[in-house]
Amino acid sequence: MARLEKLENGRQPADTVSLQTVGSQLDEESSLGSDSEVNGFPSSRETDKYGFIGGAQKYSAESAQDVPPEVLRQREVKWLDMLSNWDKWISKRFKKVRLRCQKGIPPSLRGRAWLYLSGGKVKKERNGEKFKELDSMEGDPKWMDVIERDLHRQFPFHEMFVSRGGHGQQDLLRVLKAYTLYRPEEGYCQAQAPIAAVLLMHMPAEDAFWGLVQICEKYLPGYYSAGLEAIQLDGEILNALLKRVCPIAYKHLDKHKIEPILYMTEWFMCAFSRTLPWASVLRVWDMFLCDGVKIIFRVGLVLLKSMLGTREKLKACPGQYETMELLRALEPKYMQEAYLVQQVLELPISVRNVEREHRVQLKRWRKTHGELRYKAAPRMHGARIIMDAEPHTRQDLRQKLPWHSDIWSSKADGKLVD
Amino acid sequence: MAKQYDVLFRLLLLGDSGVGKTCLLCRFTDNEFHPSHISTIGVDFKMKTLEIDGIKVRIQIWDTAGQERYQTITKQYYRRAQGIFLVYDITSERSFQHIMKWASDVDEYAPDKVQKILVGNKSDEEQKRQVATAQGNKLAKAYGMDFFETSAFTNHNITESFTRLAELVLQANKKDLDVLRVSINDKLNLAALEEEEGVCDSSSDAQKTCWC
């Protein structure tokens, strides 16, 4: 399965290469005097089915829910059909698409599905050579400096990113650099690196770039912009929703003055990619790219509710420190794939709830902080709304052949580009 | 129940992205160094208990994201700190130049009484050094701060620098400490600022004293 995934996503089967790079990194480090146990690498150096060689997010049978091969095969057939008639499925049978995202996208098609769901596919085809152009440009040294210092600090236990200067880190640099050139006024924010890295685990650099563009501009607009107002506002929204969903947890956090920004910044800015076991990350992203930010809110609420939802649990964390410790060390059973997905689906928090609370909190923000300094475009809640906002035809989803792309992009100038 | 600590306070690590704040902290609290670690997004923290002059000091150390963009978030926590590490990387001239900016932000947002020390990290990377020890010393002197060159990698000066800042915080709050010595059964919670009412009253009883 893992192999199929790699082939489908247009990456060469890199198992042998990556194992070598893992080995060479270990050698390099041992020459520096540190030992592999300390670095957290398992002595076997085996990768799990997601490409992790160690770390907290590595696959374990308890954290994941395995799908029988025959079920997976059926799902693949269904997804292949959806992907080849994408515009129709999204406009006419979106509920079915959503249901299938909730069940989990087959690993072999996940990269393509994410790119289609996010609208990155259409963006890519409409913008022809844009990525190539950005990719060949010099980056602004101001951003390159920060990006380069972050390259080895993203999923260091994943085979793609484990070796310094390896292909994963190189692609990460290309994608992040391209974004700073695409949106020079935005530049680079550190939390964009894990987002881009997750995408790169599933698709080539150009696709990952357009996926990143969509996440930054449609799903989580303003999250990565100077001032970080949007994430702080979402912290307040999360808090207000928690008050409704789980008053006991809300009261406890309020009493100990644990502001949302203290525990939810990394959760939300990285879309839980650093928090959950990998099987859960993938399922959350399947739903998130289909239905938008409400999924992120729901995951946050489920975790808070699970960890702090009863008096009994609160007894174990009577003060601020204990509570924060607890939220930093979430119990694995609450992050387990089947449990988490089930809870997320059952939690009655709708787009309308999020939007309503957004308006309330924005009003409060304006009173206390004044007008927002950064005016982000309105948030788009998922694949359907993104497509409605930028309707596309089947033509837009078709891969442009290289010799057509010039003609196509010159025709499209000014009309379709971005 | 035996008392786990006598005094509780909070330290903050500040400095440019990539200077090694998280590694300093891991070395101090867990005596570990991880070449493979992730960038800090937002704020994180760790705890450690030290014993200084027979007083059990519980310190909570806050680790912050270094990128300028995160400062709107991290600045909100300056006022909660009793001690601050200003960290630069001896192999990065720029991170050293930025110390001035970090220091002026601290002046603006942290409590007046806050204690600061200057830390030049990565002292093991002598061949890549861009900031001379003398430069660090000079800057620290200009600001009236203590100065340490450290290496989280080789464990050089780690305990020393953390202990020093903890001592400075204790000294700066000596008056309250004497109260503590008299009524040794009380816990002193320096970090109580936000747990109490934001503003603190110096005439409050020892248990609720906050040193800010």
UniProtKB/TrEMBL annotation, chain A:
<protein>
    <recommendedName>
        <fullName>Rab-GAP TBC domain-containing protein</fullName>
    </recommendedName>
</protein>
<dbReference type="Pfam" id="PF00566">
    <property type="entry name" value="RabGAP-TBC"/>
</dbReference>
<dbReference type="InterPro" id="IPR035969">
    <property type="entry name" value="Rab-GAP_TBC_sf"/>
</dbReference>
<feature type="domain" description="Rab-GAP TBC">
    <location>
        <begin position="104"/>
        <end position="292"/>
    </location>
</feature>
<dbReference type="GO" id="GO:0031267">
    <property type="term" value="F:small GTPase binding"/>
</dbReference>
<dbReference type="GO" id="GO:0005886">
    <property type="term" value="C:plasma membrane"/>
</dbReference>
<dbReference type="InterPro" id="IPR050302">
    <property type="entry name" value="Rab_GAP_TBC_domain"/>
</dbReference>
<keyword id="KW-0343">GTPase activation</keyword>
<feature type="region of interest" description="Disordered">
    <location>
        <begin position="1"/>
        <end position="47"/>
    </location>
</feature>
<dbReference type="GO" id="GO:0005096">
    <property type="term" value="F:GTPase activator activity"/>
</dbReference>
<dbReference type="InterPro" id="IPR000195">
    <property type="entry name" value="Rab-GAP-TBC_dom"/>
</dbReference>
Automatic annotation (TrEMBL), chain B:
<comment type="similarity">
    <text>Belongs to the small GTPase superfamily. Rab family.</text>
</comment>
<keyword id="KW-1003">Cell membrane</keyword>
<keyword id="KW-0636">Prenylation</keyword>
<keyword id="KW-0479">Metal-binding</keyword>
<keyword id="KW-0342">GTP-binding</keyword>
<dbReference type="GO" id="GO:0046872">
    <property type="term" value="F:metal ion binding"/>
</dbReference>
<keyword id="KW-0378">Hydrolase</keyword>
<dbReference type="InterPro" id="IPR001806">
    <property type="entry name" value="Small_GTPase"/>
</dbReference>
<dbReference type="GO" id="GO:0003925">
    <property type="term" value="F:G protein activity"/>
</dbReference>
<dbReference type="GO" id="GO:0005525">
    <property type="term" value="F:GTP binding"/>
</dbReference>
<dbReference type="GO" id="GO:0015031">
    <property type="term" value="P:protein transport"/>
</dbReference>
<keyword id="KW-0653">Protein transport</keyword>
<dbReference type="InterPro" id="IPR005225">
    <property type="entry name" value="Small_GTP-bd"/>
</dbReference>
<dbReference type="GO" id="GO:0032482">
    <property type="term" value="P:Rab protein signal transduction"/>
</dbReference>
<dbReference type="Pfam" id="PF00071">
    <property type="entry name" value="Ras"/>
</dbReference>
<dbReference type="GO" id="GO:0005886">
    <property type="term" value="C:plasma membrane"/>
</dbReference>
<keyword id="KW-0472">Membrane</keyword>
<keyword id="KW-0813">Transport</keyword>
<keyword id="KW-0547">Nucleotide-binding</keyword>
<keyword id="KW-0449">Lipoprotein</keyword>
<dbReference type="InterPro" id="IPR050305">
    <property type="entry name" value="Small_GTPase_Rab"/>
</dbReference>
<comment type="function">
    <text>The small GTPases Rab are key regulators of intracellular membrane trafficking, from the formation of transport vesicles to their fusion with membranes. Rabs cycle between an inactive GDP-bound form and an active GTP-bound form that is able to recruit to membranes different sets of downstream effectors directly responsible for vesicle formation, movement, tethering and fusion. RAB15 may act in concert with RAB3A in regulating aspects of synaptic vesicle membrane flow within the nerve terminal.</text>
</comment>
